[in-house]
Amino acid sequence: FVSMAKKKGKKGGGGGEGGEGAELKVQIYEKQLESLRHRLVMQTNKSSGAEAVVKDLREKFGTLARDFDQEKQRTFKISAEMTRHYKAMRKKMQEKIFELQEQ
Question: DSSP per residue over 15-84, as a string?
Fold first, then answer.
């Protein structure tokens, strides 16, 4: 920020110098306003970028969660089928053992 120039002369008098001091203040405030606007634009852009990243990550998380649930269900079905198959084989083997013991 630009430092303000000292006024020469007294408060009430001085003629044109008071106008120049006021113009200088206006210029300084305009530059400060411009700087603040620029900073606001930069922060807004940064915020928008962060929001886009968050949205993208939420979408990826949703996809991964769905994929995980589907894989979990598929694994459960495979496990249930293998258990059923094992029990059928065990029953068949026990029947064969029983049959051979009776001979």
Answer: TTHHHHHHHHHHHHHHHHHHHHHHHHHHHHHHHHHHHHHHHHHHHHHHHHHHHHHHHHHHHHHHHHHHHH
